[in-house]
Each structure stands twice: as structure tokens, then as C-alpha cells.
Amino acid sequence: MFLVLIETSGNQNFIFATNKLKENIGASELTYRVGTQWLLEIIGDIVKNPNLKLWQDSDLLRQNLLNSNHNPPIEDDKQSIEIIIAVSGKALLITKDEETAQGIITKITKKCLEKAPGINVTGVYVEFDWNKPIQDAVKQVYRKIEIAQSNLFSSEFRFLKLPILSHCDTSGLPASQIEINPENDKIPISQVSFTKRNSANDSLKRMDKLVQKSNFKFPENTNDLEKNFEEKLNWLGIVHADGNGLGQIFFKFEQFIDNDLKSFSEKNRDYINKLRKFSLALDLCSQNAFKEAIKVFKEDGKISINENKTNEILPIIPLVLGGDDLTVVCDGKKALEFTEKFLLAFEEETARNDLEDVGNIINEVSQKALKSDGLSACAGVAIVKPHFPFSVGYDLAESLLKSAKTVKNNVQNNDNKTVSCSALDFHIVYDSSGVDLELIRGRLELKENENIHTKLYKRPFVVTPSNKLKEATEFSQKWAKFYDWNEFKNKVKLLTKNKRNSQNENDEKKYLPPNQSNKLRSALFRGKESGDAQFQLIYKRYENITIELAESDKSLFQITPINSKENNKKTVYTTSFLDALDATDFL
Hints:
GO terms for molecular function: nucleotide binding. This protein is an alpha+beta fold.
């Protein structure tokens, strides 16, 4: 038999290469359809099964792949193709002959050239013996596609430019046609940009179906969307989330499933069925978590698209929602709350034993792989002004995600394996002169002397409740407590700016006045000693507040827990005061 892997590459560049939200949305939709709708249409034609070609949404996709009548096992004498995985930008399947494997790759790559110019898609296959472990073939085909992708030319080589050609206004590629904008200006655009824009409304319709049962609504078209996001929101949140440890789980999947069957044929069948279920379950969990998280917009998060306010929509657009990945643009004021809800809901969904159509497969795998109920995820949140370059904001969100992922190095069990733990990092861009995260954080680190280091930030924060980290070592639990998100939110409440709208003269006893916060802020940049001196000046006057704000005894600083294995003799003092001050308008 032949194991076929089809995968897109360079997705981030394809989706986020321009600052036009309409093109970002359309590019995401095109990437999604490569491994789902288009592939199923091709296979449906080959096996003459019209049911596979029926396209509606991810629910129907899941039902078709799990239905043995629509996707029969490859052992069936009459079956020539079996789909194992079909997700956004990727598909894994089995064929009985080499010609069919080659034909599928040829047809899907041709369809992508026609319908999604600019996207990179690669297909490879390996031959394997059904009476030997299929997981060996899976690892082999993944190694093969890495080599194939590294040898491909960039998609830009398909669009060579000549001096006499006009350039696309958004992509820089050679223009292929003229588009008339709302001001009746003639705008040259490339075929790549044209295709992305034409797919944007399809994405909105698909997402709208996803949340219809929740009584929410997305914009009906991209014109409404741009009007809302560019004109009616003061801040935009760019949220980029990703599951923890999924790469290793997929790579060693056979080690994390109950498989006591005797013959390789039976073991391979069990492996395929569970891998398919696990992949589909991940998709379902992300969608369910997303639907739960958007409830934060239900009350005051809606924005009107009409003057009479009869048609209201959610101020959030999912750009990527598949597998364990999530990228959204939303109302910046609610971005942190949305992200927290998504991470917690993702943990809960993956810990369920009654997921629709797929049961408890994720919990079964996570128990063996991570010794925990369910999986976890991390997120980066960049909060920017509406006209801030989107691609730059996304790059910042990606850097923040990488920062949040460092949690895996500090929350481990006694076997030095990562304990399932969610975290988030955020940054509010007040000054667009520099958005390099390393430089931003570098300016918030002070070297007092050779042995003492001061950090004026505490991010990232651990979102997972401490009672779910019982498998972690004593140090890891202490470290997670130090960076606890809920404790941080309590500090933000003590600095909230809502107090200035209150007429209650006793409010000064509940909140730290802005003038005192500003004095503390200035003092902190002069170092720990100066910051603590200013803090102690107001300690008695606002004692009910300062006790809560203090990280340690009458100090805004606390010694950062450092693992003894790191052999670091420096003392690092950390404060979350500036983090809390930054977040007062967003929590």
C-alpha cells in the first residue's frame, strides 16, 4: 500500500503577508480548503462517492470521515482510498496503488495553482507493508515531505516581474487586473490578492454557520467587517494561540494509545481509527472552546453596523481556527478576557469523555502522554490601534506566543516531563516606534550590580488553576503560583481607572489614585530601591490597597523562583506593577 501526505507550507507568510484584513481572511479560507473541501472533491470523483463531495462545514466533514460507508477501511476489497486525516492545509491518506497516489497529488496541486495561486502545497508518498507497523511509514512520509519542501522554489518565482508591469498595491506582485475601490479609484491588484479577496466572504459564511447555534453573528461581508474594525473600535487585539506538546504526541502517537491487539493488521487498523479520531477531536475542541470564549462579547462587546442599531455583530473574526491553532482579530478591550476564556475552555473540552462522535480519545492520549486530564495551550496577545500594520502586529503576537511557551521549561514533573499547563503573554502597543519584543523587554530589565538583576515585568502568566498542577514538582508549583494569572487580575482591579467615573468619595480607599500610580511608575525605572522607597511612602495611607499590591513584605518586588538545576547564582527581583498598570483598560 501507499501512504500519501499532502501539506501546505509557508502558511503564515501566505495568510499574513499583507495588511489587508480582507486578504488575510480569504487566504486563511483557501489554506483550509486545500486539505478539506478540495481534497474530498477529488477523492469523491475517484471513488465515485458523491457523499464525500457534499460540502457544508466541519461537522459534516467529521461525520463523513468517521462514517465507514463514506470512508470505508482500506482493507475492503472494493476500496482504493482511505482518508486518515483531512484538516486545514494537511491530509494523510492510504491508497492501494502508486498510480492513484500520484494522481491525487497531481490533481490537488493543479487545483491549488488554479484556485489559490501563491500557496505552497507539497505531496509525497511512501510504499509500506500492511503487515508491518504503519507508524514507521508515517514517520518516513513526514521526513520525506520535509526534504521535498526544502527543495521547492518560493511561490514568488511563479510571478516574475518586468519593469513594464504594474505592481499590485497590496502584495507587490505583478498586477493582473484593476479593481475599483469605494472611492472609484482604479487599484492594480495581483491574481493572488484577487483570489484571496474573493474567498473572504466564503470564510465569513463558514464561520457564521459555526456559531449559529450559539445565537451569535459575524459580519455578512467584508465591507461591514472593515467598517466595524477600522472605524468603530479604539483598539484591536490580535490573538495567536497554539496547543502544547502536540508535535511530540503525533510523532509518538502509537505509544499513547491502548493497543494490545496481536496482529499488525489489527494494530494498524486501531492506530488509523484513533489517529483520525484524535485529529478530528482536536478540531472539535478548538471550535467548542472558541464558541465558549466569544460569550465575553455577548453583553457589551457587540458593535452596531447600522445607525439604527438593529443589526449587531460580534467584534471578532477568526482568521485561523483548526486543529490546535487559533488566530483571531477582535475588540482589543476584550482580547485578554477572550484569550483567558479560550485557554480554560480548551483545557475543559480536551478533558471531556463525551465529545460528539469521538468520545474520550484526547483524554485517553493525554493521560498517557502527559499524565493529565486533557491538553493545554499557550497564547500571545498583541493589542494595537486599528490602523496599525496588521502583519507587524501578528509578528508581535507570534513572539508573545513563543514567550508564553517557555512555561513548559518550568512546569515539569519528577520525571522532567512537561506538565500540561496553559499560559499567555500580552503587550499593548502605545508607541509604534519599536515592536521587537526582545528590545521591549530588554528596556524593562535593570542590572543593579553583578549579583542583582531587576525585571520590571512579570509576563507571561500561568492561566491553568493551581489545583490542576498537582503532578508538577514542588518547585514547579511554586513557580506557577508566582506567575498566577488570577492573582495578577486582582492587582489590576486595584489600579482600575473606572474609579474616576465614580461619585463615591470613599472610592479612594478602594483604588490607588492615578497620581500615585504614576509616581510609582517613575520610581521603578530608577531601580528597586527607588521603587520600594516610593511605595513605602504611601504604604500606610493606602494600606488596604498596598498590602494587596505588595509582592513581598512592603515591597513591589519579589525574588523570582529559579530552578537549582540552572546553576544561576544571581538574585532576580521581579514586579508585576507595570504589567498591571498596562492592563487597567483591558481587564
